[in-house]
């Protein structure tokens, strides 16, 4: 059964349709990357899942619970981090977490260990007594994640957790999200930072102008769109003759000689990388390196949204 189940959902702000007849299912344990240009409807969808907004049409279920009918039950199983959140500047890091733990009615005896554990998980133990407003943006984001974990929710809704972070803070955020994934949480993350999501997410949904335009594992989206995959190779006996033979393999789109390597573009729905390698060996190519490139999500995204990125 899907953990997230959105059926025919339409959300309007007055006359403006922000989300249009959306259908979306996310199985439990997935890290779902929600990608789309500015104004596509990501935050709106997330607010519905977080019980903060009601759609005009459609049904929404989380873990089998009706989000529109039983918002209180939903709030106990979700952790929602909006794209902009306040941090009560006058508090220390631990006071901040204790404050929210109390709001969740977590007893004092449990609270101390819980706060310490979450500070360790989010790598903020050293900042325990620091004022919240003295934290860097990356630390504030991690504190925001610690906060939404206090009641041990099954489902995390993280709206742009990596936005505005420098490269180092992004890597730290990515490591934290990997840990949460390993803890078995189902996670929905929105982002513009496509390459970040491709490493982290098990599924991707691309939304544009309120509609999901592609959804599935990265490989599925990639194949669905017929995007070419690049295989980086080093072939010691590469010459014009071999180039012609490689280019003639069914499923090879093009062969390009770069400085010290040969780039072979393949149509993955016709030819898998391992099949290409078999073909190269039977052509007596002396293959020293064979490296399928990472999925180029940027290309997929641009293709789907026709370059209308933010
Ligand atoms: N409260 C509101 N009243 C009217 N229109 C709104 C409101 N909130 C959002 N919108 C509009 O709905 C559309 C979808 O907004 P939403 O915030 O869901 O997009 P988004 O994909 O999260 O974009 P971003 O990446 O910029 O946050 C946008 O055109 C936005 O201007």
From TrEMBL:
InterPro entries: AAA+_ATPase, ABC_transporter-like_ATP-bd, DrrA1/2-like_C, P-loop_NTPase. PANTHER family: ABC TRANSPORTER, ABC TRANSPORTER, ATP-BINDING PROTEIN. Belongs to the ABC transporter superfamily. The lineage of its organism: Bacteria, Pseudomonadati, Planctomycetota, Candidatus Uabimicrobiia, Candidatus Uabimicrobiales. Residues 4-234 form the ABC transporter domain. GO terms for molecular function: ATP binding; ATP hydrolysis activity. The keyword RNA-binding does not apply. The keyword Nucleotide-binding applies. Pfam families: ABC_tran, DrrA1-3_C. Keywords: ATP-binding, Nucleotide-binding, Transport. Coiled coil: none annotated. This is ABC transporter.
């Amino acid at each position: 059964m899907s953990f997230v189940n959105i059926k025919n959902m339409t959300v309007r702000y007055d006359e403006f349709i922000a989300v249009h007849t959306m259908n979306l299912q996310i199985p439990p344990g997935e890290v779902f990357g929600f990608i789309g240009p500015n104004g596509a409807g990501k935050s709106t969808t997330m607010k519905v899942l977080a019980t903060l907004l009601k759609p005009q049409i459609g049904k929404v279920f989380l873990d089998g619970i009706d989000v529109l009918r039983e918002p209180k039950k939903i709030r106990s199983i979700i952790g929602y981090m909006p794209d902009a959140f306040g941090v009560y500047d006058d508090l220390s890091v631990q006071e901040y977490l204790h404050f929210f733990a109390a709001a969740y009615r977590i007893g004092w005896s449990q609270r101390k260990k819980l706060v310490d554990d979450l500070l360790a998980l989010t790598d903020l133990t050293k900042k325990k007594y620091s004022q919240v407003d003295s934290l860097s943006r990356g630390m504030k984001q991690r504190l925001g994640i610690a906060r939404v974990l206090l009641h041990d929710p099954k489902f995390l809704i993280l709206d742009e957790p990596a936005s505005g972070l420098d490269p180092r803070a992004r890597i730290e955020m990515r490591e934290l999200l990997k840990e949460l994934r390993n803890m078995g949480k189902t996670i929905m993350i929105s982002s513009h930072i496509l390459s970040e999501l491709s490493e982290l997410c098990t599924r991707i949904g691309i939304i544009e102008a309120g509609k999901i335009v592609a959804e599935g594992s990265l490989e599925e989206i990639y194949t669905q769109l017929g995007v070419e995959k690049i295989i980086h190779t080093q072939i010691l006996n590469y010459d014009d003759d071999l180039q012609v033979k490689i280019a003639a393999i069914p499923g090879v789109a093009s062969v390009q000689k770069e400085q010290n390597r040969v780039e072979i573009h393949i149509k993955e729905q016709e030819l898998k990388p391992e099949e290409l390698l078999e073909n190269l060996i039977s052509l007596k190519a002396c293959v020293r390196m064979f490296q399928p490139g990472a999925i180029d999500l940027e290309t997929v995204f641009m293709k789907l949204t026709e370059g209308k990125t933010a």
